[in-house]
Here is the input.
Amino acid sequence: MDSSKKALLSVLSNSCIVALKLAVGLYTGSAAVISEAIHSSMDLMASVIAFFSVRIAKRPADRMHLYGHGKAENISGTIETLLIFAAGFWIIYECVRKLLKPEPIHLPFLGIAVMLFGAAVNFFVAKIIRKTAEETHSIAMKSNAFHLLTDVFTSLGVAVSLVLASLTGWHFLDPAVGIVLAAYIMYEAAKLMRESFPPLMDARLSPEEEKKITQIIESYQDEYIEFHDFRTRRSGPDEYIEFHLVVPSHWAIGTVDVLCDRIEEDIKEEVPQARIIIHSEPEHERKKASFEPYRH
Here is the structure.
């Protein structure tokens, strides 16, 4: 099953869960269950976006998109996090309204059963989606898995609140838990936004990732003069790496190509999704580096 089919699995499972939660929430009058239905509907929208973005990102480069379509996933991840924020504000609004006027919950155990069922289904689907995200380095699939896992925790939280409310008669627990859960998913969304949005601005890879790459290049330091203008960026599942390699002026083109190929192969063993551009320069034509050079 490829990534697009797994994204479709998320769409189908979320559709069923949203319908169940919304029906039970309206029937029981539970603010927390209705809040969960709203949260799950945002998850459904996110799953739909992820499904299409993964398909778009897999398209090869064309005349209008010479660097491919990878950033479709970053756009998807950013939109998904914005949807979580919207859902969070909506949940808080509904819960505050219920908190001001607490109402008894009809058949709370029906709500508990639906929450536990939804948590179990989403946990199973999230594990599948998360594994695919790690294998493909897909930010859209990672965002989707995150949506599903937050749904698992929030559903369990709502189930606990319904149990406590039914046992104690403290009906304010229902909307209070809804507010806490909304704050939690908005906090997690903010962390996800820091990962999905920067690539849209061509932000560099993390210091840890760059260190691994430069260490590979420096392992060949006895075979070149220096390297400089080292630049990286991420686009969806792909990492773009570019640098200038200064070599002895008397080297033949074939010798330079062999060295560059060896460096590329080693980098791709560490970073399989890497797209590498190496600009070779004869020592006598060495250009002034635009950025801080790496020298041995």
